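Recap from last week: sequence in, structure out.
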Amino acid sequence: DDRDLLTEKSSAETEIEGAKLLLQKAALAAERSQQLAKSDLIAKQDADNLQLDADIAKNNLEKAVKKLQTVQDKLSKTRICAPIGGSVIALPIVGGQVVIGGPTAASGTLLMTLANLSEMLISTHMNQMDVTRMKENQPVSVTLDAFEQMKLSGKIFFIAPMATIKNNI
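Predicted C-alpha cells:
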C-alpha cells in the first residue's frame, strides 16, 4: 500500500518548492546587503547575517531534495517488477498473504515463477535403438499428447554421454 508514501512524496515536493522560494528570497536579500555594505549603508554584521540566511536556505533546499529522494526510493519498493519478461507459470501466494521482502530473491518470499515460453527445453528419454540415429543440431518435430494437433519444431541440443535406465530400457 503506497498511499502514505504518495502523501509523503507530495509533502516533500511542496517542501522543495517552499525551500526554493526561501532560497531565492534570502539570496536576493544577501546580494542587496553586500552591495549596501560596500557603500557602508548597512553594518557588515547585518550583511553577513543575511548571507548566512541564504546559506541556511540553500542547506534546507538540499535536505528537502534528499528527503524526496528517500521517499521515492521507498515508493519504488512498493511496486513489484519482474527482472525479465515472460508468462506467470506458478503463483504460490494468495491475495492478502503477508510476504517478506529481501535484498535478494533467496531471502524473501517467492511471489511467482516466470517462464519465457517463446523458447522451450524438452528433456526426454529415448529408446537406445533411436539414439543411434540422432545427432546434435539435428532438426526434430515434437508432438504432445495434450495437444495432438500442435507440432513443435526444434533441434537436438544435447545427447547425454551416459544412458539412463527407465522401465528396464
